[in-house]
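Um, can you check?
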Amino acid sequence: MQITVKAKLIPTTEQREYLKTATVEYVRLINTIVSECIETNERIKHTSGTVSATLPSALKNQAIQDAKSVYAKYRKTKIRSVLKKPVSIWNNQNWTLKDGVLRFPVLVNGKSTRINVPILLSTYQLEKLNGKIGTLRITEKSGKWIAQIAVTAEETESADTGVLGVDLGLKCPAVAVTETGKTKFFGNGRENKYMKRKFRSKRKKLGKAKKPRAIKKMNDKEQRWMKDKDHKTSRHIVDFAIQEGVGTIRIEQLSGIRQTARTSRKNEKNLHTWSFYRLAQYIEYKAGLSGIKVEYVDPKYTSQTCPECTEKNKARDRKYKCSCGFETHRDRVGAMNIIKAPVIGGNSLSA
């Protein structure tokens, strides 16, 4: 399994200039090569010696490889892509990491020179970097230099056999139920809706003031906030699964969730801007690192069917009540039924 470890770099003022030159030139070189190929309708035949760029040969060669990928995509889709965000990529043979210092080549006074840049890594990140290290990607974000290190993590398979059903929603971002009925609610729907309203209100004011750049910054800030919430929620769900001896997590198939999810008119704006897919992907990614399998199930009637007698009912307010006597919090019902719902492209558990 391929994972990416992100960490902050602490370059000196001089090293910042080297990085800025490298990232800008790297993207410029890729765009130049791709443009030449499109105009001449010829495949890339460049080497580090035939291209002109303020880069060491290691970066030139990597840029040529990336340009080949971009051009191949163009030939397939006929959609011309122009890279804009400055970035540089070093393959695993051209950089090293030791004792909190990242070492890689840049161009210094016209010569390829390896520079030593301190990197901030947590204990968790260091554990992940014990795997087979791949490419190093460096970019600047909000004035900070970020390193993204690709790592091939060994795939494991959990020996646990329990199944966990996870239902996603707005009022409760996620509720998980084990086969034994143990239930846990994750996230804070009210806080999420409050923050969405707050960002929406600020964008509206900025729109009236005709400040498009400020609106873009606000959108980026909102996305970072939402991603952070999804990362934390998915981490807590997987931790709960490990704690309860779960080997399989089941989530409802998310296509069409905006048409089928329970919501009111006042929640409609939040429903259409919240990324249920991203949360599911984070759960799948983190579960995979722990050897837990993730399956997607058919969500049809999971929120209406009684887990005890299979009669269909609609919840009132926050309570679900069936004529057979079964009653519970309505958000548990979906998760309970997801455990036994038909798996998309697979088999469901027996009732």
